[in-house]
Amino acid sequence: MQSFFEQRGPRLDTSSPSVRHLQELIRHQSPVHMELEGGQSLQGTIRWQDPDFLAIQQERDRPLLLVNRRMIVLLRLLS
């Protein structure tokens, strides 16, 4: 039987171009615009990603916002 620490969830597929592109946005702390299902939009920087969520920092002093990857309709770089 595996312990809690040995159990691992799905891994991020780093061979996927979209995952690699998001990693570049995270590495360079690039500001992004994101549109979600239902018409809501967000702006901020992506701090990290996992197979299910992206963590978005909208403002410096605000907590991270977790966005389910399946809810994202559009993600683009803000220049």
Summarize the SSE layout with pairings.
Blueprint lengths: L16 H11 L3 E6 L4 E9 L3 E5 L7 E4 L3 E6 L2
Antiparallel strand pairs: 1-2, 1-5, 2-3, 3-4
Question: What would you say about this model in short?
Answer:
With 79 residues, this protein is mostly beta strands.
CATH structural fold name: SH3 type barrels
- Averaging pLDDT over every residue, what do you get? 91
Q: pLDDT below 50 for ≥5 consecutive residues: which ranges?
A: none
Class, according to the CATH hierarchy? Mainly Beta
Number of domains: 1
Q: H/E order of the elements? A: HEEEEE
Biggest sheet, spatial arrangement of strands: 4-3-2-1-5
- Helix/strand/pairing category: mainly beta
The termini sit apart by: 50 Å
The number of distinct helices, counting runs of at least 4 residues, comes to 1
- Sheet with most strands: 5 strands, antiparallel
Provide an overview of this structure.
With 79 residues, the protein is mainly beta. The chain has one domain: SH3 type barrels. The protein is 14% helix and 38% strand. The chain has one helix at 17-27, and strands at 31-36, 41-49, 53-57, 65-68, 72-77. The chain has a 5-stranded antiparallel sheet with strand order 4-3-2-1-5. The longest helix is centred in the N-terminal third of the chain and has 11 residues, at 17-27. The model has no long low-confidence stretch (mean pLDDT 91).
Keywords:
38% strand, SH3 type barrels, five-stranded antiparallel β-sheet, mainly beta, 1 helix, 79 residues
